[in-house]
Write a structure and sequence with these properties.
Distance between the termini: 13 Å
Shape: globular
Largest sheet: 2 strands, antiparallel
Strand order of the largest sheet: 1-2
Oligomer: single chain
Number of strands: 2
Length: 90
């Protein structure tokens, strides 16, 4: 979700990544390299942290890089309005 966690899910301007897609990629490892990723709770990602994640994704699989690219399109719009986005976990 854009911004900090508001104890809400399924917001219209949020993006959703299935657990299956999350598991097929190295997303958890990428996140754990720079933040403590809360698999079952909220994890905030600011723009600086996101840039590091994107840089680290260069060493990952094509599928992971594709997912990062798709998230990045959304994140660019998010950072125009908000200081962070929140991964809400499963």
């Amino acid at each position: 979700m854009k911004g900090t966690y508001k104890e809400e899910h399924w917001l219209e301007d949020s993006i959703y990544i299935t657990e299956d897609d999350f598991q097929k990629t190295e997303m958890k490892d990428l996140l754990d390299e720079v933040v403590f990723f809360h698999y079952y709770g909220p994890t905030e990602i600011d723009q600086t942290t996101w840039e590091v994640i994107k840089k680290n994704a260069a060493k990952c699989s094509d599928l992971t890089r594709q997912l990062i690219s798709e998230i990045d399109e959304w994140a660019k719009e998010c950072f125009k309005e908000k200081e962070c986005f929140t991964i809400c976990g499963i």
